[in-house]
Amino acid sequence: MNNSMNTLTPSAFRALVRSGKFTANTSGVAQGFVQGNIVILPQDWAQDFLLFCQKNPKPCPLIGLSNKAGDFLLTELGENIDIRTDVPNYRVFEHGKIVREVSDIQDLWRDDLVTFVLGCSFSFEEALLADGLEIRNISEQKNVPMYTTNIACKSAGRFSGNMVVSMRPMLAKDAIRAIQICSRFPAVHGAPVHLGEPSLIGINDLAQTDFGDTVTIKANEIPVFWACGVTPQVALANAKPPFCITHSPGAMLVTDIANSKLAIL
Amino acid sequence: MNNSMNTLTPSAFRALVRSGKFTANTSGVAQGFVQGNIVILPQDWAQDFLLFCQKNPKPCPLIGLSNKAGDFLLTELGENIDIRTDVPNYRVFEHGKIVREVSDIQDLWRDDLVTFVLGCSFSFEEALLADGLEIRNISEQKNVPMYTTNIACKSAGRFSGNMVVSMRPMLAKDAIRAIQICSRFPAVHGAPVHLGEPSLIGINDLAQTDFGDTVTIKANEIPVFWACGVTPQVALANAKPPFCITHSPGAMLVTDIANSKLAIL
What we know:
The structure is a homodimer. In chain A, a hairpin with a 2-residue loop joins strand 3 and strand 4. Chain A contains 6 helices and 11 strands. By secondary structure, chain A is an alpha+beta fold.
């Protein structure tokens, strides 16, 4: 985390990104503002993906969408956001395989592309920290541990797959408080989907993450599991669309929307 | 549970109680309306007890109070409620000991008595049932299991003691939902105070209840613990005021307040 980035406005931060001077992880930058996972698909795949998000709002909470195919501006999410230049790093997929990782997709843009922006856990982690809860992956400066579960998402056209969850260990009383806080934020995964015994959702060993790092689980803590934005990436990997662009892991789009605006109450 | 009582209006039910025709447990009667735990104390003890309730709102959620000492009407809780006659059964205590159990306290009434009405779990159980959750003590037609914990209440004057909790076993996903629902109802104990490992709050054996019955805990269920209205009764037993009247366990005051009115959102 680059501390000088923390207090930048979202538009000042995006200007840095657009100039190519920032291509890294956005955790902690422009604090207080919503960051989004990015999925860009050709229009003939976008309809199925939209349906997949609508059917699976906990792992795939849609917070923004292109006004029409080919439109690279996301006016509802912030001033002058250009999705071709304003994400620090992109992954380009062909038929489900990463073919390159780039910091700008102007030369790849097409008139049939549709952009999806999905809420991410950074927003609710900020709300939990503000309440005085400890977030272990933040304390230990690691990526949050993520696991593939046996919870099937609802299929939509060519998209299907099991839910991926992130895990944060907590004392029970803190888990109860986290459920209350996260329930206010359905647009960033909402309340946890499970807590306690991992095997009940198909996780056999917390020490074996499917994505991210492991974190310390202290005595008397229970694992608390949230639906995770890696879920749609797994569905994309399963579906293997001929062409797709996503953000690189952790290198998110920073929007002008205050995290607090996502609170439903 | 007497099914013919379920659909009575609160005032019709209280008329039955007042006539002496109903002296039993009020679980399920006048469905949809708030029932209250009753504590009646002399004025010189009432100030400490009020402070105890204010300091410990989860176990002692105050929903009604005499307008002034000696006033036996509780106008804010319902039409023509007379606390001397409208509770099905009363326990009379002297110096912390039960001296009699009666269905009417008109001859015991004094000008210095102050009545406290505290919210009870019947209200949140109704909200959980309405959402489709199973409440084991209801399914098994038992009293809810209750346990004394090692969680100290905040002392107030002569009142002190550890928190008593009620326990309902649930699958984790139902526990998460129950936390969301109960968070809307702080006046009836609010969100659970603990879940999972009982020993973390000083409960060594769930098969040994301190009050109430045991219930079945099925495979994959976790115990979920709520602050319980027996807590103030324990504080009263510790304080041993020279004179005190409470409802008999389960024989509550039925008010005219709809359970839904207690929801804060």
